[in-house]
Amino acid sequence: xxxxxxxxxxxxxxxxxxxxxxxxxxxxxxxxxxxxxxxxxxxxxxxxxxxxxxxxxxxxxxxxxxxxxxxxxxxxxxxxxxxxxxxxxxxxxxxxxxxxxxxxxxxxxxxxxxxxxxxxxxxxxxxxxxxxxxxxxxxxxxxxxxxxxxxxxxxxxxxxxxxxxxxxxxxxxxxxxxxxxxxxxxxxxxxxxxxxxxxxxxxxxxxxxxxxxxxxxxxxxxxxxxxxxxxxxxxxxxxxxxxxxxxxxxxxxxxxxxxxxxxxxxxxxxxxxxxxxxxxxxxxxxxxxxxx
Amino acid sequence: xxxxxxxxxxxxxxxxxxxxxxxxxxxxxxxxxxxxxxxxxxxxxxxxxxxxxxxxxxxxxxxxxxxxxxxxxxxxxxxxxxxxxxxxxxxxxxxxxxxxxxxxxxxxxxxxxxxxxxxxxxxxxxxxxxxxxxxxxxxxxxxxxxxxxxxxxxxxxxxxxxxxxxxxxxxxxxxxxxxxxxxxxxxxxxxxxxxxxxxxxxxxxxxxxxxxxxxxxxxxxxxxxxxxxxxxxxxxxxxxxxxxxxxxxxxxxxxxxxxxxxxxxxxxxxxxxxxxxxxxxxxxxxxxxxxxxxxxxxxxxxxxxxxxxxxxxxxxxxxxxxxxxxxxxxxxxxxxxxxxxxxxxxxxxxxxxxxxxxx
Lengths: 292, 359
Known about the structure:
Chain A is an alpha/beta fold. Chain A is built from eleven helices and 13 strands.
């Protein structure tokens, strides 16, 4: 894009952020007063104000998926399934074909889409209430069939959209509007570790847990999403990316406090990292055939 | 043309293949498991490299209907079948499908309820099928076959109507029509392909993204969407009403019934004529839209309607609304999977006629 189209604003650190009505990017100025592009919002993400609360992880994860879709050049071949929950409007922001599923049924809808269009890239985007409570049967059976899709699971241990009720992944002792004295395992059991659970199924191919609370973790999460989409070419099973999200509004924290809470508390119950990785021999076709 | 002796459920399944059904998702339940079994056996024979058809046993009816949602949203001819308790489980998904305006075919081989009930035939799901069933304001187009031939024919019709109006269509059959064997002829109808530019097939640069949803969070927008559906149902009511009349030209008394009850009433009308009663039979084929106008016309020349159903009286309410008090509308029903004999119905009719309120 040409810089003439853009309104320039110089930041205190000498970098230039550019913003016009259509696109957001950042340029760096070199010694010859020329600009080079250092950051650009993916074109697969629409320029619509998001409804998410300030500091929420959802908008960032939306962007990561759309970046991956753009970089892999698969916009024309990607169909996303939105959940019921905070991300119900995901289809407003992602510039790809999408279907909005009933609560918990995203992976069943994805099965219907993928089975009929096996050459397309299909993903679901679901929260913890959607995927791990009301939709746990669909989740387990979809992965047990090894449906060749990517499931992005946003786990923030709380029902966000309905404003802060206990989720199946709420931590022991966590105070929510429906567990006002803290989650008591004697009454409600323990937080369900979906990634560990479904990694036991032969149908799962790649299971990895991440967060997006700082730059390094964002880069790792992005890489996992790119991998998961790439692996769909292999037809080897379900890729499951769990993102430990934050929920400043319902955790009653500032965004920074919420991001710190992930590192200090959440990861003790939900440790980050790969839980199941493909065998090297399974990845050989991908390395031989690097087409998009 | 090819004529075979087949079970109703199998004729329906065979018709699905011939009508170009791309995807069937279902869960076993008596008395309709033959549909899934037949398709699981037969559909793979038709698969080619260029055209893959899917038949899948899902983990539940809930998953089945949502798989149908996904496949229909991607532009494919998709269907499911079940029987009463399973259809109850599908209601949420059916509501979403109606709200998102996805064409698909849903088959209910009605058994007797409520609850687990029994596996014998029933017509207790009339209200559920014709009045909505799930939450919100919506309608299914409901076709009621009363023979094995119609089990097959209505699959072609159902898929075509679904595509034409972007609306879910239900075939409301019952355990007897599904299980009985009769002659059925194929070759009268063929598969139609409809262009579906709204489907989620992957967004090319040449068009805006497509999305399938029933969510309109702003009341102003949801009302517009609701009104669009109302207008569609009005159009369907104008164009798609279907019914059958037997010996109604000179009838004094008309038996109204659909599906299995209509077969019995047909015989009852013949027996009544043998006993000197000028009886006829009126059979709604589309339960929604309901043939109210024709029933109202008939009410001008008959003395009484007797509605016969395998339930405690459901369609009779629509007959009464249609007749609008012009003449008495009475009811005879059997419950629990019990099926009336034609003689029972004629006896009921004779009793009503001898009652001085009627003439």
